[in-house]
Design brief:
There is one protein chain. By secondary structure, this protein is an alpha/beta fold. The chain has helices spanning 11-22, 83-98, 120-132, 153-164, 183-193, 214-224, 239-249, 254-264, 274-279, 286-298, 342-350, 362-374, 444-470, and strands at residues 2-6, 26-31, 47-51, 69-72, 105-111, 138-144, 147-148, 167-171, 177-178, 181-182, 202-206, 212-213, 230-234, 331-338, 395-396, 399-405, 410-415, 421-430, 433-442. Helix 3 (120-132) links the parallel strand 5 (105-111) and strand 6. The termini are far apart. It folds into 2 domains: 2-308, Rossmann fold (3-Layer(aba) Sandwich); 322-470, Alpha-D-Glucose-1,6-Bisphosphate, Chain A, domain 4 (2-Layer Sandwich), CATH 3.30.530.20.
């Protein structure tokens, strides 16, 4: 069967793709920017990549007419302040585009929406579901709550809170109940639902066997990690203060923190587990889901991470827009050094950031990340998804990877920190010579003042970093 997969570069899409291929399907991967889509070589004969933007109707003409099924895995929760209208219009455009195809079954992954009063985020998911259900195809909506897996937003936020705070003074929404579900079970529900006539034109809640408060989830996480933690819930923390608390302690963006806090006041509990019986799936409990997630982290086998999505930075752009580093009107810091061992130098660069750090002046990098957080930026907490591999589109601390080619020996990063301008950082090998180039395109007078104010620090940091990278 030919299956259309939207959100192919997203957290769920990256995990669903190999399972669909293994099941014998030909998969049409829909991406907004093909330069940040990297499928394993083993899958490439069974996939096709098309570029499209759900907000641009003309781009949806690229959808093949002969598709049999489709997955809608696109969300815009932190893409802009007006994400509700963006999500609704995207769903309408998608539904209308499918009207010209042979699609038989469409599956949507949304959120549990059983309360009478929903958060803005969950209400938006409900509207998307309603719009998609109006199409001339069989439609199935799967509604999930908190998804637990290596690299998932929920897992990483819980991890940040528990591992960084021995004592938590927390808002009262920690008493809200939810029903977490393992990412492996979500993928199983998505794949086994496809073309199953018992699921046609219905909606199902999916969740694990445990109903827990957020406080219980945090304490269970601590127990699994052998950490002693104390949590005190106070009723005086406003939603805004709760958002700031989540934003400064975890790696989430502020806009995403606001949406999450808004949703965490609403209970997300399954009405029933009918789909588990229909599909013969026995979901993992919360503790087993945590242990499985950590096994992936320990073995450096994280397939996807929410941090690599543009939602982690709150921007909506394409890599292609910045891959050509400008020269006109820019400030440039270019340095070169001889490298005795080219491959060792490349290995160092491909491990840069995250837990490895930046090889020189790490305290200054951390201070820059702290000030970025204070100004509403992403800071350094995003880290990196994998310790040794980097692909275009990946998040790397407060940078975004634009170009990555080990064989060529070139890595190009674009700054997602708060800046009065735009910044690029490039590492490039020419034989055994390493060139390190920092480029800054200032925005007005403030941009120029910024460059000159940090120039002494740049000289210190960039000179030291290049020396460390060139060392044997």
């Amino acid at each position: 069967m030919k299956i259309l997969l939207t959100g192919a570069t997203g957290y769920i899409g990256k995990r669903l793709l190999p399972v669909l291929v293994e099941a014998g399907h030909e998969v049409i991967c829909c991406v907004r920017d093909s330069k940040r889509f990297h499928a394993p070589v083993s899958l490439q004969q069974n996939i096709q990549v098309i570029e499209m933007d759900l907000l641009e109707k003309d781009s949806l003409q690229h959808i093949p007419a002969d598709i049999d099924g489709a997955y809608y895995l696109v969300h815009s929760m932190s893409a802009s302040a007006d994400y509700e209208e963006m999500e609704r219009q995207s769903a309408i455009n998608f539904r209308e585009a499918l009207a010209t195809t042979n699609v038989k079954h469409v599956i949507y992954l949304g959120g549990i929406i059983n309360e009478t009063e929903l958060s803005t985020h969950l209400a938006s998911r409900k509207r998307v579901e309603e719009e998609l259900s109006k199409g001339n195809y069989h439609f199935t909506a799967l509604r999930a709550g908190i998804i637990i897996g290596s690299g998932s937003a929920s897992f990483e936020i819980i991890r940040d809170l528990v591992e960084k705070l021995p004592v938590m003074i927390a808002p009262r929404w920690l008493k809200t109940k939810c029903q977490p579900v393992a990412i492996s079970d979500v993928v199983a529900f998505l794949t086994k639902t496809l073309f199953n006539s018992q699921t046609y034109d219905r909606d199902f809640d999916i969740g694990g066997p445990d109903i827990l408060t957020y406080k219980q989830m945090l304490l269970t996480f601590a127990r699994v990690r052998n950490l002693k933690r104390s949590i005190f819930v106070v009723p005086v923390m406003t939603p805004r203060l709760s958002s700031y608390w989540l934003y400064f302690v975890t790696s989430t963006s502020y806009r995403l923190a606001v949406a999450l806090v808004d949703s965490m006041k609403v209970e997300v509990i399954c009405r029933n587990n009918n789909l588990s019986n229909i599909l013969n799936i026995n979901p993992l409990n919360y503790e087993k889901a945590l242990k499985r997630a950590f096994s992936k982290i320990v073995s450096n086998a994280i397939v996807s991470s929410w941090k690599d999505a543009y939602a982690s930075s709150g921007i909506r752009t394409n890599i292609s827009d910045f891959i050509e580093v400008p020269t006109h009107g820019c400030f440039v810091d270019m340095r070169t050094a001889e490298v005795s061992d080219r491959m060792a130098g490349i290995d160092k660069i491909w491990r840069i950031g995250g837990n490895t750090g930046w090889y020189y002046g790490n305290r200054l990098w951390q201070l820059r990340g702290f000030f970025d957080k204070l100004s509403g930026g992403v800071g350094l907490r995003r880290g990196r998804t994998n310790a040794d591999s980097i692909y275009a589109g990946d998040a790397l601390d407060f940078w975004r990877v634009l170009y990555s080619d080990r064989k060529e020996g070139r890595l190009l990063l674009f700054a997602e920190m708060k800046l009065p301008g735009e910044a690029w950082l490039e590492f490039k090998f020419n034989d055994n010579k390493l060139t390190q180039t920092a480029t800054f395109r200032p925005l007005g007078l403030w941009g120029r003042l910024y460059w000159y104010s940090v120039l002494p620090f740049h000289g210190f940091i960039f000179r030291g970093m290049l020396r460390k990278l060139a060392e044997k």
